[in-house]
Amino acid sequence: MSNQGLVVVGSVAFDTLEIRDVKKEMVLGGSGSYFSTCAGYFSPVRLVAVVGDDFPAAHLDFLSSRNVDTSGVEKKAGKTFHWSGRYSDDLSSRTTLDTQLNVFADFRPELPQAWRQSEFLFLGNIHPALQLEVLDQIKDPLLVAMDTMNFWIGGGELPTLKKVLERVDLLVVNDEEARQLSGEHNLPKAARAIRAMGPETVIVKRGDAGALLFHDDRVFATPAFPLETVVDPTGAGDSFAGGFMGYIAKARDLSAQSVRRAMVYGTVLASFTVEDFSLDRLRRLTQAEIDARYRAYRDLTHFEELHL
Amino acid sequence: MSNQGLVVVGSVAFDTLEIRDVKKEMVLGGSGSYFSTCAGYFSPVRLVAVVGDDFPAAHLDFLSSRNVDTSGVEKKAGKTFHWSGRYSDDLSSRTTLDTQLNVFADFRPELPQAWRQSEFLFLGNIHPALQLEVLDQIKDPLLVAMDTMNFWIGGGELPTLKKVLERVDLLVVNDEEARQLSGEHNLPKAARAIRAMGPETVIVKRGDAGALLFHDDRVFATPAFPLETVVDPTGAGDSFAGGFMGYIAKARDLSAQSVRRAMVYGTVLASFTVEDFSLDRLRRLTQAEIDARYRAYRDLTHFEELHL
Fold first, then answer.
1. Across the interface, which of B221, B298, B300 has its CB nearest the CB of A300?
2. Is B113 exposed, middle or buried (0-12, 13-18, 19+ CB in 10 A)?
3. What residues of chain A lie within 8 A of the CB of B301, using their CB?
4. Mean pLDDT score of chain A, rounded to an integer?
C-alpha cells in the first residue's frame, strides 16, 4: 500500500481578507490547505508545505482530522506566509494588498522517503525550479498534475516552467494564464498549444463561467454551480483541484468517464468553499452534502433523461 | 391547423461589419432574419418585420426557402434599417458605429389575421409599446417569449417594459440586462427577481460562457459550444432564440425535458451562426450538421454514461 497515495505540494498560509464590509484577519488559507481539505473527502492526502513557528497547532489538527497527513509540513523558525487582499464588491476581481512570503520564501519541498512512490502528485503554484525538484523526488507516478500562475509565465522563469510542463500529465490553469502561456486568445486553440508543450490533459478554469477539460480530441465543459450566496471566492481554484485529484486518487481510474466525474467533484467542492470565509464552509461540510450537490449538478447539466 | 405556428416580430436589416481586417458592407442582418432562419430548421415560421424598397428580393427569397412565411414582412417606401458596428479583435465587445433606423423607425407590427391564433410568439427587441400592441393582436398563445435590451431597461420606457413582462411566459436576456433589470449582480438572484415581475421562465445568455435557464426551482446550464474558429458573433443571441423557439414549436411540449432540449438546440444554432459572417454559415447549414452537433454537445456536457 505504501506506493499508493496523493501528494500535494503547496502553500499553507494566513490570509487577511477584505470582502464587502467584512475584514477577516489571519485566517487559515493557502493552496495546500484548500486542496488537501477538499481532496481528503475522497482519499488520504500527503501534504508537503512549510509553516512558521507562529502557526497554530489547531490548524494542523484540523487538517489531520480531514484525512490529511501533515508529517510533510515543515515547521521553521519565523513567520508563516501571509497574504492580504481585497475583493471588488461583485467578487469578480481582487487586489493583493500585501504578500509576506516569510518562511515560504526559502521553501525547499522535501518529500518524506515513504511518499516517494506515491501514485498521484499535485504540484501547487510554487517556483517552477522547485516543481522540478519535486518531480525528481517521485518515482513512476500514475498521474502528475500542476498549477502555475501568470507570474511564472510572464517572467524570466518561463524556460524552467516549460521544462516542468514537459514532465506533467495535466495542467490546471485559469483562462488568462492559458492565453498568456499559449499566446492564443481562443481557449480551444490555447489548450491545443499547451498540450503540445507536454501535458496530455489541460483544464482551463473560468471562474463563474465554469471550467473546460481538453483531452484527446474531446472537450468536457463544467458550468459553475449557480449559487445565490457567494461569500469569499478565495481558494475556489485550489478546492476544484483538490476535489478533482482526490476523486482521481480514490478511483485510480484515468478513463474519460472517471476524469469527467473528477471535474464535477472539483466543481462541487469549489462551490461549497465560496459559501463562507476561509475554509469555514469546509469545516462543516459533510459527505452527504457533497453527494447531494453532485446529484444536483447532474440535474443542472443533463438533458435527454427524465429527472422529475 | 391554422392555429398552429410560430410568429416572430423583429428586425430585418442591413449590417455593415468591421471584424479584424475584414469589412462586410450591407450584408443581411437583423434579429428577425437570424431568428427565423434558425427556427425554420424545426418549424414553419411567420415573420413580422418591415423593410425598405431597397431590400433585395433575393433576401426574402432566401428566407422563404427556409420555411419562413414572409407575407408579414411589410415593404415600405424608404430605406431598410442599417446597423454598422466594429468588433474588438478578441470579439468580446463591439462598438456601434452608426444606426440608421430608416423604415424601422415607424414600424407598427401588424399580424396578418390568419396568424392571430398562432400558438407560439417571439417578441424581438422592439419598443415595449409595440410589444404590447402585438400581445393585443394574438389570442391564447401557448407560449410567449420576449427579448429586450438595456436601452429600454434603463430609459423612460421601463414602466411599459414591465407591463410587457407581466404578460409573457419567458424572457431571454443577457447577463448585463438581467442585472440592470433586477438590480441584482448575482444571476440566480437576478433571475428570481425577474420571475417575480411576470415571466415564469428566464433565460440568461452569457456570451461565450453559455446560458442559464431558470424555471421552477431548477436551473439548467448550457455552456457555449467550444469553437476554434469564431468569425462573426453578430446574431448569436437571435440564433439561440430561434433554435430554442423553433424546437419548442415543433415539439409542442413545454415539459422541463423539452425546454432543456430547446436550450441545447439554441446553443447549437448559435454556434453555427458565429462560424461565418452574416447568415452565411446558415445558408449552407444542413440538418445533418445540426444533429451531429447536438450529439457532440451531449458529449461535451454529460458525465456518468459511456460515450466512447
1. B221
2. exposed
3. 220-221, 301-302
4. 95
How far is the C-alpha of B30 from the C-alpha of A113, rounded, in Å? 67
**Residues in A touching B243 (Cβ below 8 Å):** none
Closest among A259, A162, A160 to A203, alpha carbons compared: A259
CB–CB contact B306 A257 (8 Å): yes
What does the pLDDT look like over A189-230, one tens digit per residue?
Answer: 999 999 999 999 999 999 999 999 999 889 999 999 999 999
Which ipTM was obtained for this model? Answer: 0.93
State the pLDDT at residue B304: 80
Q: What share of chain A has pLDDT > 70, as a percent?
A: 98
DSSP string, chain A: -TT--EEEE---EEEEEEETTEEEEEEEE-HHHHHHHHHTTTS-EEEEEEEETTS-HHHHHHHHHTTEEEEEEEEESSPPPEEEEEE-TTSS-EEEEEEE-GGGGG------GGGTT-SEEEE-SS-HHHHHHHHHH--S-SEEEEE--HHHHHSTTHHHHHHHHHT-SEEEEEHHHHHHHHS-SSHHHHHHHHHTTS-SEEEEE-GGG-EEEEETTEEEEEPPPP-S-----TTHHHHHHHHHHHHHHHHT--SHHHHHHHHHHHHHHHHHHTTSSTTHHHHT--HHHHHHHHHHHHHHH--SS---
Q: Which chain B residues are within 8 Å of A301, Cβ to Cβ?
A: 220-221, 301-302
Q: Quick check: helix, strand or coil at residue B15?
A: strand
Q: Cβ separation of A230 and B206 shorter than 8 Å? A: no
pTM, rounded to two decimals: 0.95
Contacts of A305 in chain B (CB under 8 A): 257
- Asked if A218 has any chain B CB less than 8 Å from its own CB, the reply is yes
Assess B298–A contact: CB distance below 8 Å, yes or no: yes
Least confident of A34-38, A281-285, B196-200, B206-210: B206-210
A6-301 folds as UDP-N-acetylmuramoyl-L-alanine:D-glutamate ligase (3.40.1190)
Q: Do A303 and B186 touch (CB under 8 A)?
A: no
pLDDT tens for residues A153-195?
998 999 999 999 999 999 999 999 999 999 999 999 999 999 9
Answer whether A189 touches B (CB < 8 Å).
yes
Nearest-by-Cβ selection for B226 from A188, A229, A303: A188
pLDDT band at residue B308 using 50, 70 and 90 as cut-offs: very low
Given CB atoms, is A88 within the 8 Å cutoff of chain B? no
The confidence score (pLDDT) of residue B307 equals: 40
Distance of CA A297 to the CA centre of its chain: 20
Query: Do B30 and B81 touch, CB atoms closer than 8 A?
Result: yes
Q: Could B257 and A90 be called an inter-chain contact, meaning their C-beta atoms sit closer than 8 Å? A: no
Residues A230-242 have a mean pLDDT of 97
Q: How far is A259 from chain B (nearest CA, A)?
A: 9
Considering only CB atoms, B221 lies closest to which of A192, A260, A301, namely A301
CB contact under 8 A, A192 and B307: no
Tell me how close the Cα of B292 comes to any Cα of chain A, in angstroms.
14
What integer pLDDT is reported at residue A3 of this predicted model? 53
Give residue limits of the domains in chain A: 6-301
- Model pLDDT, residue B3: 53
